[in-house]
Amino acid sequence: MSVSDLATLLLVILVLCLLFGLMVLGWRRRGRRQAASVGEIPTTPEKLAELEFGPVSGVYVGSTIAPHWQDRVAVGDWGYRATVNLSRYADGYLMERGRGNPMWIADERIVEVRRADKLAGKVMPGNGLLVIRWELPTGTVLDSGFRADDKTTYRKLMDVRES
């Protein structure tokens, strides 16, 4: 390897490290900017009501500030994709994430439950995502997305909600 090849390699590595650093800096700034509007993250109640459906395995796609499907929430650990088991209880939805804290979405906070084809930078053909739109105690409305391993469970998850 010649000196010019080594210099080029080091320059490329330096540029990549700089770009990665800027991405991390941007993610942290987004989290600080959103912290006030997201506020305190709701916790799972100690005693859950009756389990109505689930758990359904899949992937937690992320949460975004509604209605902007690409404005991913960077507060806490809500911005990271993770394997998840989604369960429908009589009083809300529980997402038990493999990487991250569980997410509890209480019925009184839910605006709508729908199927969608995109959320948090993820695009799925044929409305392959289940999206729960819900309001935080601060008044901020979020869209939280779930991609099930078995898409036929979406109808049941939504039917339970509508009954």
Q: How would you describe this structure to a colleague?
A:
This protein is of the alpha+beta class. It contains two helices and nine strands; from the N terminus they run H-E-E-E-E-E-E-E-E-E-H. The protein has helices at residues 3-38, 153-162; strands at residues 51-65, 82-89, 92-97, 103-106, 110-116, 118-119, 122-123, 129-135, 141-148. The strands form two sheets. Strands 4-3-2-1-9-8-5 form a seven-stranded antiparallel sheet. Strands 6-7 form a two-stranded antiparallel ribbon. The model has no long low-confidence stretch (mean pLDDT 85).
Provide the spatial order of strands within the biggest beta sheet: 4-3-2-1-9-8-5
Radius of gyration: 19 Å
Unreliable spans? none
Question: How much of the residues is beta strand, in percent?
Answer: 35-45%
| Tally of individual helices | 2
Tell me how many strands there are. 9
Instruction: Let me know the largest β-sheet.
Output: 7 strands, antiparallel
Cα distance, first to last residue?
69 Å
What structural class results from the helix and strand content?
Answer: alpha+beta
* Mean pLDDT rating: 85
Which sequence of SSEs, written as H and E, runs from N to C? HEEEEEEEEEH
Name the overall outline. Answer: elongated
Helix content: 25-40%
